């Protein structure tokens, strides 16, 4: 009976996390880009899995309730997220419009490698400054996980971490398989343009919630 309960909790965590991860978002696009470039991808996958597990854990342990109890905290967090999404979108748009073909990552001869610190620093910012992450992992997944009983909560977090690991490994593999496509500089322009549109769209959507919180 106990094993059935724990298995059910793991399955719930895996299923909910997987359904939220399979979408085109800032973090996914960044990891895909790093996989295509073959640059610090193991570190990126490791960070994504650990951050997902920690954020879900915080939600299960009560952070989701704290954010609901203190709307001003959610307001400032979301406001900062809007600013970040706009800045990241503008950066991607500038990279698409201004970069010459010779300077694009698709040109293997001119590709400039970035340090692990710079790559992870950008990924940490994309993860933690995106309010969408908190809505998904802390509020939604946290509130569902908090309903589990006893050890079921930790199996729920384990299931979520398993889904995260599976997804980002798949994303890394897909990125490596797509290197031939991105050998053409124009493919990078398309990715940057897609990233810019996605970031502006998310910023607009999140801004609506800021106005609601401010009322």
From TrEMBL:
Chain segments annotated as transmembrane: 12-32, 44-67, 73-94, 115-134, 154-175, 187-207
Keyword Transmembrane helix: yes
Topology with respect to the bilayer: Multi-pass membrane protein
Record carries keyword Membrane: yes
Compartments in which it is found: Cell membrane
Assigned keywords, A-Z: Cell membrane, Membrane, Transmembrane, Transmembrane helix
PANTHER family documented for this protein: ARGININE EXPORTER PROTEIN ARGO, ARGININE EXPORTER PROTEIN ARGO-RELATED
Protein name: LysE/ArgO family amino acid transporter
